[in-house]
Amino acid sequence: MRESQHNTDGTSRALQREVPRGEYIYHAGERGKAWRIVAGSVRLDRHEDDGPAFAGLSLAGDVIGAETLLFGAYTYTAQALSGCVVEPWGAPAERFGESMLRLLAATEQRMADILALRNGRADQRVGGLLALLGSAGAVFRLPRLRDIADITGLTIETVSRTLHALDEEGALEVEGCRQGRRIGGAELAPTRTLRP
Known about the structure:
Blueprint: E1 2-7, E2 13-19, E3 24-26, E4 35-39, E5 41-48, E6 51-59, E7 63-64, H1 68-71, E8 77-80, E9 84-88, H2 96-116, H3 122-133, E10 139-141, H4 145-152, H5 156-169, E11 173-175, E12 182-184
Antiparallel strand pairs: 1-2, 2-9, 3-8, 4-7, 4-9, 5-6, 5-8, 10-12, 11-12
Helix pairs in contact: 3-5, 4-5
């Protein structure tokens, strides 16, 4: 993780971290602070006997690791799904309760969105995830096929075939090599089953 300081509101300085795709922000069981995602997306995993299992997805504006404020340690492992920027999060004491309620509501909505990605046709699942990760017409770096498969409940082979089919249909614009693909999702909205 690369750290940099800059002004976030013209007066205060916040410590931000740039996290490359695939790198960890924190691990389950560690102590630490809560983080707000400034840009990008983060995959949350829980640890089971047979290894990590997908548990959730957080996007720009979301707060991750807030459970440390209550339990003193992270419940999940957080990994950058795309390159992302995070900054420490702390609600002002006088608005802490209100901030936590908003955080809880946003988390519940995100989990409903994620559950919707695990049902339906493969093109709806993959298209829905890409629409969730980027606004219509946005260009962004594609998550790893393994991550897309874990999130959507599909196999890597099905994800690969689905991306190829969406590209052939013109629903996606795929650029670059396998490791550095970027996608413009202008045509994803019709296949999307989630709320904007």
